[in-house]
Amino acid sequence: xxxxxxxxxxxxxxxxxxxxxxxxxxxxxxxxxxxxxxxxxxxxxxxxxxxxxxxxxxxxxxxxxxxxxxxxxxxxxxxxxxxxxxxxxxxxxxxxxxxxxxxxxxxxxxxxxxxxxxxxxxxxxxxxxxxxxxxxxxxxxxxxxxxxxxxxxxxxxxxxxxxxxxxxxxxxxxxxxxxxxxxxxxxxxxxxxxxxxxxxxxxxxxxxxxxxxxxxxxxxxxxxxxxxxx
Amino acid sequence: xxxxxxxxxxxxxxxxxxxxxxxxxxxxxxxxxxxxxxxxxxxxxxxxxxxxxxxxxxxxxxxxxxxxxxxxxxxxxxxxxxxxxxxxxxxxxxxxxxxxxxxxxxxxxxxxxxxxxxxxxxxxxxxxxxxxxxxxxxxxxxxxxxxxxxxxxxxxxxxxxxxxxxxxxxxxxxxxxxxxxxxxxxxxxxxxxxxxxxxxxxxxxxxxxxxxxxxxxxxxxxxxxxxxxxxxxxxxxxxxxxxxxxxxxxxxxxxxxxxxxxxxxxxxxxxxxx
Lengths: 230, 274
What we know:
The complex is a heterodimer of chains A (about 230) and B (about 270). Chain A contains 10 helices and 4 strands. Chain A is mainly alpha-helical and about 230 residues long. Chain A folds into 2 domains: about 40 residues, no CATH class; about 150 residues, no CATH class. In chain A, helix 4 packs antiparallel against helix 9, helix 5 crosses helix 10 and helix 6 packs across helix 10. The mean pLDDT of chain A is about 95. Chain B is globular and about 75 Å long. The model of chain B has no long low-confidence stretch (mean pLDDT about 95). At the A-B interface, strand 1, strand 3, helix 2, helix 6 and strand 4 of A face strand 1, helix 5, strand 5 and helix 14 of B.
């Protein structure tokens, strides 16, 4: 078959290598310069390696413990939440496991983007500590107070004190304050962590349902009311 | 709304006995045999039936925006994500990636904002938004250059001009749409940017002009053009999934240049050594 003549891509001078910044290719992979198999696996927990991957520096013990505890608080996402609900639906229509994982990741990422966007001013405040915490991130509900109490107890049991983790915070605020203490910065790192934290429990819920078991699914919940006309 | 039994309004569709409704139309009686794929996409997103001329220009757009070379960034992404045999995975990955991205078909919506901004600027300056004086429009373009250095939609990668713009201009003229307001505005802006800063328009801004002339909004234009441009995604995903090429699943290590930190010991490893 005759070759087509050169186009813009053939005629364009372009790099001959793809650049890597974090992970070395090949055997004995290094993460930000640290050997995963020869150093990190011996000295750090998995969640601490995640912290290192995202922040570029291995955490100290307090930051590692705080991160671990925050991830545990972030992990469970019941079927009432859209990402788990969507993953269950993928399971029920008979999707492959890889597709269910993909659906969960997309929905978790969308949820994370939404949550972090709503907390943009909080993330800015955490960087500057300029003035009072914006009032919208405070809470007076018993639910939030109880969750904060559990978080404080979990952190205290690990001998971790997170500055700013005081009474009257919303649950999300408390968890983002803890992640910030653990070294996470900015929307990109926070969104990544939120997805990672909930992925396994979300998939566990989805995979607990029988594939193609559509008869047990409440198809008319919630009700959509179809409207026509202008 | 009762929180315990919430309901949601929808204007999209309703499943019925013997027929189904879509956007206010009977699938059996109104759409089957009467509506094209492009027309169906316009109905899906914009919520209205397009007329015959609009349907044809949408088909023209779907054809013209095709640049299916798998080396192009968007399509390489499709190839990588379909490299393990999942065709739909490749299409899903690129579709998700394009949302609000500055590169790709979804950016047509952002390009439409540029034209709308220009028109708003003209109206604010007391100029005719439909047929502006060239000097007033040039002032607008110079301001846009000062603000953005490279106005959105006026960057053509790899080549001096975007061949798709020329193809589209030909079809727009053939369909009798070259005198519509946003196409005329686009043509004038393109001439001015070329004259004052050697900038050529890319396909998204040209396509956005056609879509604005159909009354579509920027938030509708992005998804609509993404959907119409999906043939490139499907072609690459289908072939990529069939190939499952080991050379994409893992590229040779020699093709990678590592620029990160050099090997070092972690603080805990150092502490153990002491």
